[in-house]
Amino acid sequence: MGKQLTEMLKGTLEGIVLAILAVRPAYGYEITARLREQGFVEIAEGTIYALLVRIEQRGLVDVERVTSEKGPPRKVYSLNTEGRAALDEFWANWNFLAERIGQLHEGDSRR
Question: Is the pLDDT reported for residue 72 higher than 70?
Fold first, then answer.
């Protein structure tokens, strides 16, 4: 992954994770696996776990400890009302930026 893409991803990863949790609750490794299925293969699990701690501290998710067959209980994250509002704001901002960037791209005379 190039440096520019990595930097862009840093700014959007929280919204991406919230979007994953909007589909259904998940635990950290499962979120990482879903990201990899979507082509985000170079995202480290540690990055996701740190992000989950931040969004939990900000009150965007509810956390339930679920018994695991292998090892300690898993923390399963689900989007709550505050998280839904944050995701809605993310999509509004994303749509605004995507539209403006698309206009710039269409106006690029080098294409």
Answer: yes
